[in-house]
Amino acid sequence: INCSLMDNQAFNRGGALNNIGGVISLKNTLVARNTAFEGADGFGTFQSMGSNLVQDTVDMIGVDQASDLVGLDPEVENLRFDVGPTPVYLPLPTSPLIDAGQNDGLAATDQ
Q1: What angle do CA 39, 29, 64 make, to 5 degrees?
Q2: How far is Cα 61 from Cα 109, in angstroms, rounded to an integer?
């Protein structure tokens, strides 16, 4: 929930996520610009809780909620280390991420 999984790589499967059993739930999660031999962004079965942006779902099953953004470029800046206590990917003004998340059931503040 509320994660950014970007610019990772795996030799074999699932550049960011490799689910070989169990359940991986995604909500308000950005998965993009990852690389792998199979499943650049992810490999296996997932449970979408909505409002995810996943750039490459070719080998991902279950990223299928109406609020999921699939196959889109997230349009973010490169990883920045000068914005706060943790590195962030800031969305560009034209990013499909802007106002695309869900706030229900989440903390009022983050960091």
Answers
A1: 65
A2: 31
Task: Report the relative pairing of strands 53-54 and 69-70 from DSSP bridges.
Answer: parallel
pLDDT at 34: 98
Structure tokens at 91: 């969305």
Q: 110 vs 86, which has greater pLDDT?
A: 86
CA atoms within 13 A on the CB side of 24: 18
Distance separating alpha carbons of residues 99 and 11, to the nearest angstrom: 34
Q: How far apart are CA 111 and CA 96, in angstroms?
A: 23
For 16-75, write each residue's pLDDT tens digit. 999 999 889 999 999 999 999 999 999 999 999 999 999 999 999 999 999 999 999 999
In this structure, what token pair is assigned to residue 102? Answer: 């869900």
Strand order in the sheet with 4-6: 4-6, 30-32, 53-54, 69-70
